[in-house]
Specification:
The complex is a heterodimer. Helices cover 64% and strands 0% of the residues of chain A. Chain A is globular, with a radius of gyration of 14 Å. Chain A starts with 10 loop residues before the first helix and ends in a 9-residue tail after the last helix. Chain A is an all-alpha fold. Chain A is built from three helices and no strands. By secondary structure, chain B is an alpha+beta fold. In chain B, 30% of the residues lie in helices and 27% in strands. Chain B contains 14 helices and 27 strands. In chain B, strands 1, 2, 8, 9, 10, 11, 19 and 20 form an eight-stranded mixed sheet that branches. Chain B has a seven-stranded mixed sheet with strand order 6-5-14-15-16-13-17, sandwiched between helices. In chain B, strands 25-24-26-27 form a four-stranded mixed sheet, with helices on one face. In chain B, helix 1 runs parallel beside helix 4, helix 1 (32-43) runs parallel beside helix 8 and helix 2 crosses helix 3. The relative contact order of chain B is 0.12. The chains are: A mainly alpha, B alpha+beta. At the A-B interface, helix 2 of A face helix 10 of B.
Chain lengths: 69, 512
């Protein structure tokens, strides 16, 4: 698993593509798309140990709270 | 035609009138596990007494899916082909999501095996055939003999038994509890039996149909997630012998089992699945289940076997099949101990079958969790898996309606040697002359040697000078395999080093 930058110069384009994938979807549709995406990415990565590290890193992430809205 | 539940004869046991000599082993419970245990031991020259509080076979079909490995063990016990001939061999499985078929798959395994991947056969037939085989071997079967107490004296166990003619006491060197999930022995000993309980109720119904509900005469196995006839739940339809069809319906947690198991409730559900055709209701049951096991299967002179020791959900058919593997593992070890081998050999039953049952529990818990999503998020992931599966094979592999029973690997455990990929696995069958490999190697230690591999040892050896076909593809040539009595491969050899082979044989318990 890497949490260092792995997308290089394409980072902005990849992020924009993800946003575009969700465009025009309501919340439920977006949730379904995310679920599909995770399942497809799981298969693409196909490595139980790397995936377990990612699940754990995402679950235990605390970070900062961010500004109150 | 409904099965004829003919009662087994009760005869007054000798212990009622005079003390019986101490028996090598007493088996409590005459279900598939207890009966298979008695047959295995009888074939090894160990005379047992089988006690059962009842006098008929299983009422209702109950365990119906018998896996290839079980059939191979039944083959060794002398009942394999009889089970296969009567059973329905699975051919095609179809998986539906709602009204739509997601995909279908071939349930027949590759060629070159004596037994298929699975058959369906009602537990009452399995028990009947096992009883008849046990009678043929002269096993002392005592029906309407109910165990009410036992006392472990460390050299033997004293057992109090109640019969229609009064009570008597028996002595046995070993007491084998094969009583099923509700094991009175386990309860009497107050042993903790912990695990995961699932809240969903399931309804199982057997119906006799004059005509197949499938669109073909071949027996199929249909599984639905969210079937159109049964909102939001799962359903399973498959065929048993005698035109009996099994229907499993997931009812959800908020149901009253007593109310569900009534004809008024059940008949409309069946008609929703098979249409308005004539049928006979044969049997039904509503149940909940859990996944749990004992910490230890061996307690002094009391040994727990099958569901008495561990229980799983029905998804994957790992209950009955797992129990038969317990029998296969324990039989040769207990016979060796009764013939003078150190008691420590029984500790490897504990080690190996605790491992096997943990694997079964893991698989069956995962299947149950897939089938009963606990949150909207779990339900959403499952739904997307099912939707993706129609187009993408990777998602088909994630659909879990039960991972069908497979024997566990014993690699890395005490009796095995080396890290060859086949070590710990069950012997893979292959055609051999006019018969099969499993017929030639099971039941005792055998050294299988192939091609130019020639070893000078005292171990019974099966040498195949020119292996070809599936045998060659599965085992290679110029090599050797040490196969245990229960068919697991204890060691594999590339060089015919007699000393190494003899050492592996001793480590596996063969020299005892």
């Amino acid at each position: 698993m890497t949490l260092e930058d792995n997308m290089g110069a394409e980072g902005d384009a990849i992020y924009a593509a993800l946003m575009q994938a969700h465009e025009g979807l309501n919340e439920a549709e977006s949730h379904s798309l995310n679920a599909r995406l995770i399942l497809m990415m799981m298969n693409e990565i196909g490595d139980a140990e790397r995936l377990a590290s990612l699940f754990e890193a995402a679950r235990s992430f605390e970070g900062s709270e961010g500004p109150k809205s | 035609m409904a099965y004829d539940y003919a009662p087994f004869p009760y005869t007054a046991p000798p212990g009622l009138t005079e003390a019986e000599p101490r028996h090598p082993a007493v088996i409590v419970g005459a279900g598939p596990i207890g009966l298979a245990m008695a047959i295995d031991l009888a074939q090894r020259g160990v005379k047992t007494v089988v006690l059962d509080d009842n006098n008929v076979v299983s009422v209702g079909s109950r365990a119906i899916c018998w896996a290839k490995r079980t059939l191979e063990i039944f083959d060794r016990l002398g009942v394999g082909t009889r089970m296969l001939d009567k059973g329905v061999t699975w051919k095609v499985g179809r998986l539906f999501h709602g009204a739509d078929e997601v995909y279908s798959f071939d349930l027949l395994p590759e060629d070159g095996h004596k037994y298929p991947a699975f058959i369906n056969l009602q537990q009452y037939y399995v028990e009947q055939y096992l009883v008849e085989r046990a009678q043929e071997l002269g096993v002392d079967l005592r029906f309407l003999n109910k165990v009410t107490a036992h006392r472990d004296h460390s050299t033997h166990v004293e057992i109090d038994v109640e019969t229609p003619d009064g009570s008597y006491t028996l002595e046995a060197e070993y007491y084998l509890a094969c009583e099923g999930a509700g094991s009175p022995t386990r309860k009497r000993m107050e042993l903790p039996f912990e695990g995961q309980t699932f809240e969903e109720h399931f309804l199982i119904v057997d119906v006799e149909l004059p005509q197949s509900p499938f669109e073909t005469d071949d027996p199929e196995r249909w599984f639905w997630f969210a079937p159109p006839f049964h909102k939001g739940q799962s359903a399973l339809l498959h065929k048993q012998p005698d035109n009996i069809y099994r229907i499993d319906l997931q009812l959800g947690p908020e149901t009253d089992p007593k109310e569900e198991a009534t004809e008024e409730k059940v008949i409309p559900r069946i008609k929703a699945i098979i249409g308005d055709v004539p049928f006979r209701l044969d049997w039904m049951s509503v149940y909940k289940f859990r996944c749990a096991k004992l910490d230890r299967f061996v307690h002094g002179r009391v040994v727990f076997v099958g569901d008495s020791a561990h229980v799983v959900s029905p998804f994957g058919a790992r209950g009955g099949n797992g129990g038969i593997q317990d029998v296969d593992n324990l039989g040769w070890k207990l016979a060796a101990v009764l013939h003078g081998a150190p008691e420590a050999l029984l500790e490897t039953y504990q080690e190996e079958r605790a491992h096997g049952s943990a694997e079964n529990i893991l698989n069956s818990s995962r299947a149950t969790n897939f089938m009963t999503p606990k949150s909207p998020t779990e339900a959403m992931f499952r739904n997307e898996v099912l939707r993706l599966a129609a187009d993408h094979p990777f998602a088909r592999k994630l659909i879990n309606s039960g991972r069908l029973s497979q024997p566990c690997s014993l690699a890395g455990l005490s009796l095995q040697s080396g890290d060859h990929p086949l070590v710990g696995q069950v012997v893979i069958d292959a055609p051999l002359g006019n018969g099969w490999l499993i017929e030639a190697v099971q039941g005792r230690f055998v050294l299988l040697t192939l091609g130019d591999f020639v070893a000078e040892t005292d171990i019974e050896t099966l040498h195949i000078a020119k292996p070809d076909g599936p045998l060659r593809a599965r085992y290679g040539t110029d090599c050797g395999y040490l196969i245990r009595p229960d068919g697991h491969i204890a060691a594999a050899f590339d060089t015919a080093d007699a000393e190494a082979i003899t050492a592996a044989y001793a480590k596996a318990g063969g020299a005892l």
